[in-house]
Amino acid sequence: MDLVNYTSISEFVLLGLTDLSELQVIFFIFFLMFYITTFIGNFSIMVVTVIDTSLHTPMYYFLWNLSFIDICFSSVAVPKMLRDFLALEKTISFFGCICQIYFFHLLGSIEVMLLTIMSYDRYVAIGNPLRYSTIMNTRVCRCLTFSAWIGGHFHSLLHTVMTANLPFCQSNLVNHFFCDIKPVLKLACTDTSLNLKLLTRVTGTLATTTSLLTLLSYVFIIKFLLRIRTSEGRKRAFSTCSAHLTVVFMLYGTAIFTYLRPSTQDSLDQDRAVAVLFTVVTPALNPIIYTLRNKDMKKAMKKIIVNNLSF
């Protein structure tokens, strides 16, 4: 079929999680609570790490960035999803759909790279404590963060441009609650095998590389921990890593499950459910994990609360 005969699609319809009105109201309340938790929790971490000078260290600089990314990452999909739960027409413009794809993959790829950087930071802190401030100086921290943003931009831009240039016709029903690459590719009127190969190989390379680098950092961390003679010393040293490890397993597990499997109708339905974890649940749990498992953060929050109450 000639491309000129294709019907131009100016907007898409998001099918969402369910079409049952009773469940939509329940989901709206449930996900709204998670989104509020995401915003308040991560914003609180950002404020505390700025106010408390004892937290002006590389670890908390990266944590500030992670909290900022989590707020933005969740905001790409969740506000639109909440609106659609209460709307009769769940449409999104073609431009809005492409923007969702770009920012979703931009922020997602930045987060996995940032978690890898944070694992390296923990390796330096535990393996070279005397040289930690010299190695992880302000310039290095900013350069590492900037490189994550640049890498995330090019990774996302590749998939976004490849998707935006596809011809779309006939159905405009996206089997998802936001515009992601796989469900949008299903609506293209041409062969999308190249897009899917790039998604698997490029995203797979990114996920594999960052996960291996993270694993390598922890191999060296464990090596240094074994040199610590007292169990109390090992426990105290590893406590700074436990929250980061928990977040890593949650994010990589869902990302690998979603983007490194073949695209079928059943897999798309599963992807939609799994997407709830990394767009709604994980960003809300991250601040809880980092505060409950971090003594310095809990101490700083208590100090700020006490100081405010004293006034």
Detailed description of the structure:
The chain is an all-alpha fold and 311 residues long. It has one domain: Up-down Bundle (Rhopdopsin 7-helix transmembrane proteins). Helices cover 76% and strands 3% of the residues. The protein has a three-stranded mixed β-sheet with strand order 2-1-3. Residues 1-7 have low confidence and may be disordered.
User: What's the alpha carbon Rg, rounded to whole Å?
Assistant: 21 Å
* Average pLDDT metric: 84
> Given the helix and strand composition, which structural class is it?
mainly alpha
Low-confidence stretches: 1-7
Q: Could you give the distance between the termini?
A: 73 Å
The major β-sheet equals: 3 strands, mixed
Question: What is the H/E order?
Answer: EHHEHHHEHHHHH
Q: Number of DSSP strands?
A: 3
Q: Work out the count of structural domains.
A: 1
The CATH architecture is Up-down Bundle
- Say what oligomer this is: single chain
Strand order of the largest sheet: 2-1-3
CATH superfamily: Rhodopsin 7-helix transmembrane proteins
The amount of beta strand, in percent, is under 5%
Helix content: over 70%
Number of helices: 10
What is the highest CATH level, the class? Mainly Alpha
Shape: globular
